[in-house]
Amino acid sequence: MEEGAEAMKEALLTRNKRGQLCVDGGDDRRYLGKRVWAESKMLWRVAGPAIFGRVVTYSMNVITQAFAGHLGDLQLASMSIANTVVVGFNFGLLLGMASALETLCGQAFGAKKYHMLGIYMQRSWIVLFACATLILPTYFFAASILELAGQPPELAAQAGMVSVWFIPLHYSFVFVFPLQRFLQCQLKNSVNAIAAAIALAIHLLVTWLFVYHYKFGLFGTAMTLNFSWWVAVALLMCYVYCGGCPETWNGLSMEAFSGLWEFLKLSTSSGVMLCLENWYYRILIVLAGNLKNAEIAVDALSICMSINGWELMIPLAFFAATGVRVANELGAGNSNGAKFATIVAVITSSIIGVFFVVLILALHDKFAYIFTQSRAVINAVDKLSLLLAFTILLNSVQPVLSGVAVGSGWQSAVAYVNIASYYLIGLPVGVLMGWFFRLGVLGIWAGMIGGTVVQTLILTMMTVRCDWDKEALEAASRMDRWSSIQK
Fold first, then answer.
1. CB count, 10 Å around CB of 70?
2. What is the value of pTM for the model shown?
3. Which range marks the domain in which residue 138 is found?
4. Which Gene Ontology molecular-function terms are recorded (predicted)?
5. Which of 57, 156, 183, 190 to pair with 284, CA 20 to 30 A apart?
């Protein structure tokens, strides 16, 4: 056993000596430029379609929210809370649990153990379906929970009603998240993008039909979002089942029920890691509902969060691309390749983030018109635009570092980092600034940004101090262990 481990280590070190020449050839700038160009092409092969697919998918939520906003301020606030808070809380957990596939499928694909990808996806369906059913009561009791959290009774009641209408959307996450990660780990993100584009086109048509033509109002806006997400599920299912992935999909198998406990543990770690991030700024909207003029505060903040979420689809695409690139390189035993992929991804995402910061600052008093004509809400959004720009800048780095964590399998450690930085630092400081110093939404948001800064600094330190050779060895060990579980 020890001889096998030593042989593996020696092989990895030999491979990485060759890879080191690509990183350390500082005198040959032209060679380094070719190396950056080659890595950028591999990164954008995943990130490009992922950006398009995620922006298009998120646009369905924005379109639904915009239609609700033109029905009235109460309708916008109730749709925002139902979609951003209630659905968003569960979305974050299920999305995080599905990200376990980015570690396992990415490393299995890099190690050329293709048959395992289909088994992993089926295990993810089983685990996510069980989890989705366990958290279903959050929809039925949403009105009571929101009222206990301090939301005005009328707003809580309507948001609770809309939440129940979103139960079909809730179950679509069980299937679409594993399907998307299954495909992206095989560098088939263009399939995800095409499915999202078709779903968006259908969503626009159905929304116009239900809301404007048939006048179904708030109920119609909710139903269109349910329908469109299930269209995306059906399209991806058809692609996989009809022979789009012959090497990685061999049909439904009872083998998916083996090793579920180990899979559940990794999925739970992934879920906790990402849902703590996803929940963080959604709590901001709940806290805003406890302020004076809650309806205006919630509307303004939800518009900022919608713009932030829209732009966040780009860093999240780099999160996915970085996770895939790091996992593929570690699975193949190329530790220096994983390190170089991390550097290129962080720099690229940061440059894009700076561009959007400039755009937000230039349009600080105009972008709210997408959602509302209310002068009070537009003025409130204008006051929050600087914090929105700073949040976007942070978000251009932090998700990429989280992608490194997912690709390397550090989910458990990062979950503790998120708890400390977000919930022991950022949230208490935000509450203190919002109420004690009477800074309102500005204070709450500014304090919570502090938590994001702390988290980003810690993830940066973890990444800089990472022993990539050790990570490559652990990836090889993980693949052997999961293969033995399969047998």
1. 13
2. 0.74
3. 2-486
4. antiporter activity; xenobiotic transmembrane transporter activity
5. 57
